[in-house]
Amino acid sequence: MKKIIAILMLLALALTAASLAEEGDLLSRIQERGKLVIATEGNWQPWTYHDENDVLTGFDVELGKLIAQGLGVEAEFQETDWDAILAGVDSGRFDIACNGVGYTEERAEKYSFSTPYLYTEIVLVVRGDNEDIHSVDDLAGRVTANTASSTYASIAEGYGATVTPVNTLLETIMLVEQGRVEATLNAKGSIDDYLTEHPDANIKIVETLKQGEPVAYPVRKGEDTATLVAAIDDILEAAREDGTLAGLSEAFFGVDLTQGE
């Protein structure tokens, strides 16, 4: 009987070892399958959007392609709503998210982040004729529009606002212009880009809330993801040193946002 138990234990250990070997770390699995699965919204210009030919592009899209190339694989972008992006990374549905994800200490408890690759400015936007809101201190008791679980929504709620959830920047601007919400917080680059394309838009920036919010790539936290994060960091550092990162920032945002404050 003891011999049978010992054999069964050895068999169980062998199966466990085989399973672990088959799984490997996440970077190995990505390279074996030959593609990096990237989550993105596809509707947040200039980060990730469709151009006039309906081709997916944007700062994060082009940088995501560069990361995939550096890993020796193809980039496979899967477009989804913001609320599904981080959950999808956590579940393993996506390998990384390329969607202007702001680094926060709270998120860092759940996800492993690359080194920051961009530093955004956050602006407070109201309707053009709004004379009641001049800063975030005026948001108490007001209604704002933002994607749920975003850093912008958290900031607005922190100042006492009630957040109406939205899915796209276009929907956000529409609600502000219609007076259905009183304000929104968003990335300055996205608002500037929108105003460039829609100079008659009935909105205005009343405050730059924060400069230099770090943006980084989230990866599922775990021992098997450390090599992927390290590889992404190496690719980002090379892109920073040879000017590629700054060049992409200037191409999509009109300014180099890669250096922080």
Question: Any overview of this molecule?
Answer:
The strands form five sheets. This protein has a three-stranded parallel beta sheet. Strands 10-7-11 form a three-stranded antiparallel beta sheet. It has ten helices and twelve strands. Helices cover 43% and strands 23% of the residues. Residues 1-22 have low confidence and may be disordered. The chain folds into two domains: 2-117 and 216-253, D-Maltodextrin-Binding Protein, domain 2; 120-213, Periplasmic binding protein-like II (D-Maltodextrin-Binding Protein, domain 2, 3-Layer(aba) Sandwich).
CATH architecture of the largest domain: 3-Layer(aba) Sandwich
What's the N-to-C terminus distance?
Answer: 70 Å
**Average residue-wise pLDDT:** 89
Computed Rg = 22 Å
**Strand residue content:** 15-25%
CATH class of the largest domain: Alpha Beta
Provide the number of structural domains. Answer: 2
Strands side by side in the biggest sheet: 4-1-5
Number of helical stretches of at least 4 residues: 10
Helix percent reads 40-55%
* Strands, count: 12
* Structural class designation: alpha/beta
